[in-house]
Every structure is written in C-alpha cells, then in structure tokens.
Amino acid sequence: MMKFMTLSNKNKLIALATCAVLISGCSDDDDDPMIVQEDAPAPVVMQTFDVTVTNLSANQPLSPVFIATHGADQSLWMAGAPASVAIEKLAEGGDSSDLTAISSLTHTVNGNGPIMPGMSETLTLSINEADVASISLATMLVNTNDAFAGVNNYDLTTMAVDDSSMMTLWVYDAGTEANSEAKGSMPGPADGGEGYNSVRDDVDFIHVHPGVISMYDGLADSVLTPSHRFDNPAISVKITRAQ
C-alpha cells in the first residue's frame, strides 16, 4: 500500500531542514572577527592620607579646618597678593563654603567643628592615585578680625606609605579687615561679633600677621585680653600617608 505524506508532516520536514542549514552556517561567536573582546578596566588604586591639625595657641579657637587636594599648579592664596573672596570669607568668618565650591579642587573635606587651644583633629582623605598631586589647608583664628593659617600647595606625590611630614604654620593677615579688635567686629567667643563683611578697609594684600594688641597693651577699644595673643607659629600640621 502506498503511503502518502500529509501536508502537515511535509511542512515539519521542511522546517527541520531549514533550521539545520541555518545552524550549520553559523560560526562560534568567539571566532567571529566582527566581535571585539574588550579588556577589563584597570583597578582603581587609592591613596589615603591622614592630616592632623593641632592648635598651639593659648586662647584662639580655630574654625573648622578646610582641606583640599588639587593640581600642582594651583594655590589657594599668595602672600603679597589680594585675598580671594573665598579666603576673605574664611579669614573673617571661618566660612569655607566658597573654598569648597571651587571646581578645580579634586577632593575636599571639612573639620567636624572648632579646634580649641591645645587640641587636635585628624581628618582622612582617600584619593584616586591618578588625582594625587598637592594638598592645601586653611583655618581661621576666630578671636581676630581676619587672621588665618594654612598649608598652601604641599606636594604629596613623593610620599610613600607610612611617610610623615610635620610642619608648623605661620599666621597670616588677610588684609581685608582692619585689626581694630573692636566689639562686634570678630566672630569668636571673645566677642561674638560679625564675620564676613564685603567692605575691605585694610591694606588688601595677604601678609604675616603682626599679632593682636589687646586692651591691656594700649588699644582702648579692643575687647581682647593678653590670653588672646599668639606667637608664630601658632598651628602644627602632620600629614601621613596611611595607604
């Protein structure tokens, strides 16, 4: 008896044959010259630095410390030149918000609060190895009109793991506010007066601070006492590469 293939079975055979042809014409993806194998990205290497700031003064609290890393060709201030508004705000009122907003800084960190006389604070920065270059630091002596101290453009690239650098810092006068020491002109606890004032009524260039005079030294309108005097250097900083 002759057997007839139904249309349904015929269609199934055609489909199977077509599939076999398609499969045999395909090559392994790994051998396809059109597929590019991408290399795995290089792992990110971090470097960690601990920065310890110590207040050496007798009665000058420090504003919360501002620390930043940046390129080797950048400085936050320059002695003999006018202070930027960002430095003026820090030196007159302890406000580092304008410094933090500088777009060219690669990393920034701010202290947790004022550093009282004789006290220290350690802040840690973890930096992508590709961004490691220079570090700067700034803080205000708050029982003054516009005194600040800091590290300006210190090179980190030569520091190996466990290396430390110890330095003492001179106090600078921002030159933006006259050192009247008058009531209402200083933000610290000795006065509780104003901080930043946009009016510049001093020499308008940064220089080493001559120190405070106080009411007991003949400045009749001063609200400061001999305890608020400071000798240079008034701050110490230790930078350690921890990792």
Tags for this model:
single chain, 243 residues, alpha+beta, Immunoglobulin-like, 10 strands, Spondin domain-containing protein, Spondin_N, Spondin_N_sf
Report on this structure.
- The chain has one domain (46-241): F-spondin domain (Immunoglobulin-like, Sandwich), CATH 2.60.40.2130.
- Helices cover 13% and strands 26% of the residues.
- The chain has helices spanning 7-24, 85-93, 97-100; strands at 46-55, 66-70, 107-110, 120-128, 134-140, 147-155, 164-169, 171-173, 207-208, 235-241.
- The strands form 2 sheets. A 6-stranded antiparallel β-sheet has the order 3-2-5-6-8-9, with helices on one face.
- A hairpin with a 6-residue loop joins strand 5 and strand 6.
- It is elongated, with a radius of gyration of 33 Å.
H and E string = HEEHHEEEEEEEE
Strand line-up in the sheet with most strands: 3-2-5-6-8-9
For the record, the CATH class is Mainly Beta
Shape: elongated
What share of the residues does DSSP label as strand, in percent? 25-35%
Short recap of the structure:
This protein has 243 residues and is of the alpha+beta class. It has helices spanning 7-24, 85-93, 97-100; strands spanning 46-55, 66-70, 107-110, 120-128, 134-140, 147-155, 164-169, 171-173, 207-208, 235-241.
